[in-house]
Amino acid sequence: MPGGGFSPVTGPWDVIVIGAGIGGLVTASQLAAKGATVLVLERYLIPGGSGGSFRRDGYTFDVGASMIFGFGEKGHTNLLTRALADVGERCETVLDPVQLAYHLPGGLQVAVARDYGTFLADLTALFPHEAEGIRRFYDTCWEVFRCLDAMPLLSLEDPAYLAKVFFRAPLACLGLARWLPVNVGEVARKHIRDPALLKFIDMECFCWSVMPADRTPMINAGMVFSDRHAGGINYPRGGVGVIAEKLVHGLERHGGAIRYKARVVKVLLEGEGSQARAVGVRLAGGEELRARRVVSNATRWDTFAGPGSAASTLIDREHTPAAERTWRRRYRPSPSFLSLHLGVKAPAIPPDTHVHHLLLERWEDMDAEQGTIFVSIPTLLDPSLAPGGHHIVHTFTPSAMETWQGLAPAAYRTAKEAAATRLIERLEAILPGLGAAITHREIGTPRSHRRFLGRFAGSYGPVPALRLPGLLPMPFNRTGISGLYCVGDSCFPGQGLNAVAFSGYACAHRIGADLGLNPWALPA
Known about the structure:
The protein has helices spanning 22-33, 79-86, 116-126, 131-149, 159-168, 170-179, 184-191, 195-209, 218-227, 241-253, 300-303, 322-330, 409-427, 434-437, 446-453, 497-515; strands at residues 13-18, 38-41, 53-56, 59-62, 93-96, 98-104, 108-113, 233-236, 257-259, 264-270, 277-283, 288-296, 331-333, 336-345, 356-359, 373-376, 390-399, 438-444, 462-464, 484-486. The chain is of the alpha/beta class. The model has no long low-confidence stretch (mean pLDDT 94).
């Protein structure tokens, strides 16, 4: 526990974390558990960011997706389970027997069962001529997963960690290094020829990376395509926001603190040019807080200045490192989403309905504006999220900020309503009678995501602007400014709750090494 004159109100702080997304909270709680004095500053009223929840009229809605990885009980890839346990917390979860039900062009329908053998059998029944290729491709994903699962996932920027983990699991390390520069598309085409099946692999990637297979790193696919069968998809009872709430409890139990409605506008620097060092932050009201280290859980577009950056970034153009300009050329913001949070009468959802669905009518619309539709019905797993006799249907589709900019208030409201009506009409292909069953409706656009989550263009993270060699160009947690770190989906390994938890573990480990807080032994 902190001592030596430390105050949970005024510090002084070892580490200030800007933003209470899952990446920031894992970083903060891990450092607090190591004995660091930590303050999290969150601009909004609740923790979690896109991994949070909000309540309306008896409903508990998840802000983002509710298909959650990382709650397994074995190995090292169950990062949400481990992050909570490290600070004395756990989530009660409900196992989802099917990861996702695909409704794709040409009548292609696939439900990805928790059991790996069942999934392979179901997919092979649709593409019997590709039986061997299907097995070889997904077995290759398992090779990647086993490498990841064999080692504690900490900071790849720490030579001491790399040496220790190589000594423990040399074959896994060498195997992982082999896959770092590889994308999914080249592996899929090595084993599979059928164009429709390759399109399905594209959609398997797009549903979580928002990119086709050729631009999706094999490391990420190895995690997702295998962990859904190993650790499984497990929904946190009470809603996804419970994860963030419990991380906050663990943080505070270990002497850390969090402040809400605390919008950071600048990272304070001392020194000139390349010698500048982060020493604290300034809040919107002018208050300044000092720390030995500063962590930004904002996007890199909101952290560093550059062409097309936010109007006010945490670091000005003069101090933005050259590496960040290179990063901007390699990556662009993924689209945001048009999202509907619906309360519907229970009879509209048959009891044998799968929880998660993906709908696409034409392959050429996969990455188009409002092309692919994602659906979550979490009340099939946790009925307590809705009033009696009702379900939640959360549906969202990619949408760019440009679609919604420049609209006057009345035109904006009209455009939202029209887009929502079109989305509901399309959903009736898989949920007949949905429109007539709606009793509660909220519409969010990229403007909503920007406003409430404080993210550049409402984006949910970076995607490659061109074909890149796997994860190799993805930055880690340290930045070109001494004392300043980044965490979250703008860092290795990218988007998704389990991925940003990995980023949080890595960031906390790197800072722990810099502050002399890390234990010598690797986690069990």
